[in-house]
Amino acid sequence: MRQNLDRAAGHFALVVTGEPVFGWRDRSISAPADSREGRRWLRVVSEQTEWAHGHGWTGNTTANGLTGVPKPRVLGVHEWSEGEWRRQRAEVMTFMPGTPCSPTDTPPPQLDLPESWWEGLQQTLRNLAAAPTDRVSTDQIKVDRRVRAAFGETADVRIQRWETVHGDLHWANLMNPLAIIDWELWGQGPVGIDPATLYCYSLTEPDLAQKVRGCFPVLDTPDGYRAQLYAAARLLHRATLGDHPHLAVPLRNYAHRLLRSASG
Length: 264
Fold this sequence. Notes:
Strand content: 15-25%
Radius of gyration: 19 Å
Oligomer: single chain
Number of helices: 8
């Protein structure tokens, strides 16, 4: 992956200036870099050829069309193959000031963000929800598969309304000052799924979880309950793969409370 980063830097005439950051399961590598025009962010994702296409492959680039959303802008793309089994995609982006809210998907203890940050996040998600797109982040088939795998074949979460969403809103994808990064999965998804995902990732920090809940009243609506059940099921699936195992128990306990409320 470091060789991929060096190759991409050479293609774009960039000089990597910081220690690389590795993405989920080392699927991507990113680092700050300097260009003649100023500071940039360079990211290279590596994928098996059979998966190196479609909405997920081009999400960061197509997100350039979004407005009213603080995010990086892709300035250039370069792809190359490694034999017939692997493909790399390099993206050079505008550099976003600030730092991620967390080095992991879950929040650090006592994360403290100003009210202006929360207000900005609320407005950003409203702007995003209204953006037209034919991209699909999550459909009913995916909801059914994840919910039934987590809670049994009788579990049923029928999504009633859809909106444009980020699709993976966790604390490592949020920056302070406010910016949202990693737009691979954006598209149409259940109403409330972004706040629901952030809430579920925050369950290990009750005060922060309560702050998320207070900022997003949708979580206390039928749409929000459905979104939270899907978010919990999705994160529980990730926990079975070894991600954030400390979230598994609070996620399952919370999801069971939601299921009891729904059945009652």
